Each structure stands twice: as C-alpha cells, then as structure tokens.
Amino acid sequence: MRTLPLSTSRWPRRLAVTATAMAVVGLGVAPTATATAPAATSVGMVAPAGSTPTDLDKAPAGLYLFQYTYRGHLKIGGGNFTLGGRVYVAVKFNSGQVKYHGTVTAKTNSGVPGGAVYLETNISAPCAPGNNGYAQAYDYSTQTWSPRLPVAICVRLD
Fold it and tell me: In sequence order, what are the beta bridge partners of 114?
C-alpha cells in the first residue's frame, strides 16, 4: 500500500487560524441591546430592541483581549484601545512573573472597534491544555488595564 505525501502548503492551517481569529473577534464585538422600547421603522413595523442602526454602530464598552497561534507562537490581539495611542501588553505566569512584554501602537482594523493591537510573542504555541498564565494590556492614554485573558504558557521540562 502506498501513502500519499503530506501537503507542504500551510494554506489550510492559515485559513483555519484566520477563520478562528475572525470568529473570536466577531463574538467579542456582538452588539448589545440597550433600547428599552421597540423602535418604529419607516414602514410602520416595529423593529426588535437593539437592532436599530444607531445601536449596531455602538462598540462594546471596555478593553478586551483575545489570543491565537501564528507561526508557531502565541499572539495576543485586542480592541477598544485609544486609536494611535501606546499600549503595553504583558504575558505573565499566574505567579506574576513576566514571560513576555512589549509596547505597540493601537491602529485601525475594520473588524475591531476602537484601536486594535496585535503582539506576536516568542512563546511557543499551541501547548498542553491548562492555563498557567494570563495576558493583560495597559492603555497609556486612558490609564486603563484590560481584563486578564487566561493563556497557556509553554514551559520546557528538561
């Protein structure tokens, strides 16, 4: 019996990673219903609460982070930062020891509200299940910390 050679193309994996990242961003920016009464549309029908164009244009409040793997490394992304502002991103063990950190500038991205940040770390990924650390970002312009994002930090056991 003969086996087929493995594909050397990374396109299927890249497509899966991109689709996963976009799904995470999509879940993170789902509009919330803030209206207390239904709005009437131009044809006299009543639109469901929270579905008027002005409600859909509102971004969720607060900073947020998400993670994905790119080129075999952990990458941290986030949104709702001050556009053009500096953002400090740190990946720490649960003990508080810093594993990786960097400062990036928040830029525009069509799928992310506010300023978007992306930081590729030197931390190998993916690794064994279990979150032994977290990522957190600090927006210098607003002097605000993002919520902690639990992450798995690969550690060699030689």
Answer: none
Secondary element (H or E) of residue 22: helix 11-28
Contact 135, 76 (CB under 8 A): yes
Kindly state the tokens that stand for 138: 């600090």
**Is-contact 72 125, C-beta < 8 A?**
yes
Contact between 111 and 79 (Cβ < 8 Å) = no
In sequence order, the 6+-apart residues with CB closer than 8 A to the CB of 41 are: 47
Find the angle CA(114)-CA(119)-CA(124) to the nearest 5 degrees: 145
Residue pLDDT, tens place only, 115-151: 999 999 999 888 888 899 999 999 999 999 999 999 9
Report the SS3 class of residue 14: helix
- Residue showing tokens 């193309």: 9
Q: 64-158: what fold?
A: Immunoglobulin-like (2.60.40)
Contacts of 63 (CB under 8 A, 6+ apart): 78, 79, 80, 81, 137, 139, 144, 145, 146, 147
Question: Domain locations in the chain?
Answer: 64-158
- How confident is the model over 17-36, as pLDDT tens digits? 555 555 554 544 444 443 44
| Distance between CA atoms of residues 86 and 139, nearest Å | 6
